Amino acid sequence: MTSAIGASACLIAACLGLAAASNGASAQSVEAFYRGNRLTLVIGYTPGTVYDLYARTVARHIGNHIPGKPVVVPQNMPGAGSMNSANHIYNRAPKDGSQIATFARGLPMQPLLDETGVQYDPQKLNWLGSPASEVSTVIAWHTTPFKTVDDLKAREMVVAATGTGADSAVFPYVLNGVMGTRFKVVIGYPGATETMLAIERGEADGSAAVSWGNFTSTKGDWLRERKVNILLQLALKKHPALPDVPLVMDLARTDADRKALALIFSRQSMAYPLTAPPDVPADRLAALRRAFDATMQDPAFWRRRNSRSSISIRLAGARFRL
Amino acid sequence: MIATVFASPPEVIARAREAIQDGMRRTVSK
């Protein structure tokens, strides 16, 4: 009996110790933990997407700013509009600081809008930040009749989308509901590349969620050759390169609608979010956050980012702690 | 940022959800 009580006491003490470690500093130094270890960066999209490009650029540099200089290994985990990776980092990833993740910018607020498939609490994730903000745009192929916002209300416009919870569907849904546009959302395209192909082939008239930074880097020829009309920009503030394109926030008809739009499009200021799981030891989390901040100050990061993705315009206030 | 979004007034969240649902009803899927 005595030994059983003693064993229980030891177990309780051990549990308390583990609890203390999960909330405070770990017994092992941060440098000792990361030296010779690896940090996995889970990416919720396929290789070659803009999320993937940002994440791999972060992965190449952030390890240099973490004590012990771990090797950082990108791991693509696509599925369900990147919700698979969000569910993974919250539920299944080790909570010791050895994994971080990036996924769709809308997922942090998704539980407020639609809980389908959500298995994470964004308020318990340990956000590191976002290397950039974004502005999305509504574009239409140049041969279609869509030239202005009024055209979007006058006739049905077919837009290509990836999934019901993705920006490519949520944005046109919101615009239909708030502004009276007549987007017909066709769901089922795997990603932005296939969406652009659908527009070029005439399967879709356009898209209501084209990230401007990505678009200018991948479809610069469309812009130069005026292949698309830029009808509307979707963010809280205008992109400096698009002064004459209407901003969605200026078109709300009521204060309630304006606030709803602000809620939806606030995601643009955390365009490529990075997070650690819940309950990471405090000293390792602090080290990861310091490393992210240092990466954002690292000239080598910006040189590589600009050379790889040709995203030449860095928006004001681009780095955020979420 | 996340905390601010989740601290939005219930009526704002409700309007955003309503707008998405309204917009979704007007569309069809592939």
Quick overview of this protein structure:
With 322 residues, chain A is α/β, with parallel strands linked by helices. Chain A contains 13 helices and ten strands. In chain A, the strands form three sheets. Chain A has a five-stranded mixed β-sheet, sandwiched between helices. A three-stranded antiparallel β-sheet of chain A has the order 8-5-9.
- Strand % of chain B is under 5%
Which sheet architecture does the biggest sheet of chain B show? none
Topology order of chain A in helix (H) and strand (E) letters: HHEHEHEHEEHEHEHEHHEHEHH
SSE pattern of chain B, N- to C-terminal: HH
Q: How much helicity do the residues of chain B have?
A: over 70%
Number of helices of chain A: 13
Number of helices of chain B: 2
Distance between the termini of chain B: 35 Å
Q: Using DSSP, what is the number of strands of chain B?
A: 0
Shape annotation of chain B: elongated
Structural commentary:
The complex is a heterodimer of chains A (322) and B (30). Chain A is of the alpha/beta class. Helices cover 41% and strands 16% of the residues of chain A. Chain A contains 13 helices and ten strands. Chain A has helices at residues 2-23, 30-34, 50-62, 83-91, 110-113, 149-154, 167-179, 192-201, 212-218, 220-224, 255-265, 282-296, 299-309; strands at 38-43, 71-76, 99-102, 126-129, 136-141, 157-161, 183-187, 206-211, 228-234, 274-276. A five-stranded mixed beta sheet of chain A has the order 2-1-3-10-4, sandwiched between helices. A three-stranded antiparallel beta sheet of chain A has the order 8-5-9. In chain A, strand 1, helix 3 and strand 2 form a beta-alpha-beta unit. In chain A, helix 3 runs antiparallel to helix 13. Mean pLDDT of chain A is 87; it is low at 1-22 and 308-322. Chain B has helices spanning 2-6, 10-25. Chain B starts with a helix and ends in a 5-residue tail after the last helix. Chain B is elongated and about 30 Å long. Chain B is mainly α and 30 residues long. The longest helix of chain B is centred in the middle third of the chain and has 16 residues, at 10-25. The A-B interface holds A 108-109, 112-114, 122-123, 127, 164, 169-170, 172-178, 182-188, 256-257, 259-260, 263-264, 266, 269-270, 320-322 and B 1-6, 8-9, 11-13, 15-24, 26-30.
